[in-house]
Design goal:
CATH superfamily: Ferritin, core subunit, four-helix bundle
CATH architecture: Up-down Bundle
Strand content: under 5%
CATH class: Mainly Alpha
Number of domains: 1
Order of helices and strands: HHHHH
Radius of gyration: 17 Å
Distance between the termini: 54 Å
Largest sheet: none
Oligomer: single chain
C-alpha cells in the first residue's frame, strides 16, 4: 500500500483495494463477454441486440475505470492484467456455442446478473468497511447494471 492522506486506516484501505480489484476483474470480464456477444450474434433480432450489447460494454468499461482509479486513490495497485482477470473473475466463461440471438441474450444476461449481484455484495462490504465513497461507486454501478439487465431480460420474458 502506498501512503495517502485518505483518512481510512491502512488495513481497511487494503481490504477495500482487494474488493475493488475483484470487482475490476468482473467488470473487465463482463466487457469482454459483451463484446464477444456483440461481434458474433446472429439471427432475426441482430439489429436490436448488436447495439444493446455495446451498451453493456460501455457500462462495464466506465465502471472498470472507476473501480481501478478508486483502488489507486486508496493507495493500492489496480490489477487489470489478463492473467489476473482470468483468475479473479467470478463470472462463468462465455459459452462457445452462444451465437443465435436468444442464446446470446441468455449468456450475457447470466454474466450481467452475476456482475450486478456481486456488485451489491461489494457495496455492502465497502459500506461495512466505512468507505461511503466506494459504496457510492458500487451503488452507481449496481443501478446501471440492473437497468441493462432489465433490457436484456425483457427479450427473454414472455407475456403472462
Amino acid at each position: 500500500m502506498y501512503k495517502t492522506s485518505v483518512n481510512i486506516p491502512e488495513a481497511k484501505r487494503a481490504a477495500l483495494v482487494k474488493l475493488l480489484n475483484a470487482s475490476l476483474a468482473d467488470a473487465i470480464d463482463l466487457s469482454l463477454q459483451a463484446k464477444q456477444a456483440h461481434w458474433n450474434v446472429k439471427g432475426p433480432h441482430f439489429i436490436a441486440l448488436h447495439p444493446l450489447f455495446d451498451q453493456v460494454v460501455d457500462m462495464a468499461l466506465e465502471h472498470r475505470d472507476n473501480l481501478a482509479e478508486r483502488a489507486v486513490q486508496l493507495g493500492g495497485i489496480a490489477e487489470g492484467r489478463l492473467q489476473q482477470v482470468a483468475k479473479a473473475s467470478c463470472l462463468k466463461p462465455y459459452p462457445d456455442d452462444a451465437i443465435e440471438g436468444m442464446a446470446v441474450v441468455t449468456a450475457l444476461a447470466a454474466a450481467l446478473g452475476a456482475y450486478a449481484n456481486a456488485t451489491r455484495v461489494a457495496l455492502k462490504e465497502s459500506d461495512a468497511l466505512g468507505d461511503p465513497s466506494t459504496a457510492d461507486l458500487y451503488t452507481e454501478s449496481s443501478r446501471a447494471a440492473d437497468k441493462l439487465l432489465w433490457f436484456l431480460e425483457a427479450h427473454l420474458q414472455s407475456a403472462k
